[in-house]
Amino acid sequence: MSGNKYEVALDETWELFGQHMSGAHAGLCCVISSEPLSEAAAKALDSSLAALGYGRDACTYVVSDGLDQQALFVLVEGLDPICIVAADGKSSALLGQAYRLALPSGKAARPLGRAAISFLDFESLLKTPQDKQIAWALLKKLPKFGETRG
Questions:
Q1: pTM for the whole structure
Q2: 40: three-class secondary structure by DSSP
Q3: C-alpha to C-alpha distances, 106 to 16, 88, 122, nearest whole angstrom
C-alpha cells in the first residue's frame, strides 16, 4: 500500500461494490447503466473517451441495478472520476437523486464539479449512423482530457 488516501478509498470502493463494477480499476470516466452494456456499447464509449484524450480503457462501468441513491453516491465518490456518463434514463434518474440535481437527457451537468452527461438510451443510439452522430455530439460535451470548464 502506498499510503495514498485516494488509493485506499478506491480499493475500498472496489471491495464494497465490485460486483456492480467492471472495466478500469481507476477509470477517469464512470459509466453508469441500469443493466450491463453490450460489448459494442462499451467499445463505442471506450473509443469516444480515447478520442477525447482520456486514453484507452478509461471507463469504469457501474451497473446500478440493486443500488440505492446513497450507495451510488458512495460508489461514485469513492471512484472519484473526472467525468460521469449515465447511459440510460433509469441510471440518470438514480444519479440525479444521489446528487440531488436534475440530469436531463441530452444535456451536460456538473454534479460536485464533475462533468456529466445523460442519455435516455445510449445503446439504441448505436443502431444508425445518424443516431451515432447524436450520441457523439453529446459525448463531446465532456471536456477533453486536461481541459477545464467552469
A1: 0.92
A2: helix
A3: 31, 11, 10
Domain at 5-139: CATH code:
3.40.470.10
Contacts of 127 by beta carbon, 8 Å cutoff, 6+ apart: none
Q: Rounded to the nearest 10 degrees, what angle do helices 69-79 and 89-99 cross at?
A: 80
Q: How far apart are CA 9 and CA 114, in angstroms?
A: 18
45 class by beta-carbon count within 10 Å (0-12 exposed, 13-18 middle, 19+ buried)? buried
Residues in the chain: 150
Each domain of the chain, given as residue ranges in start order, spans: 5-139
**What is the mean pLDDT, run by run of 10 residues, along the chain of 150 residues?**
61 96 96 97 96 94 97 96 97 96 89 94 96 96 73
Residue 113 C-alpha cell reads as: 464539479
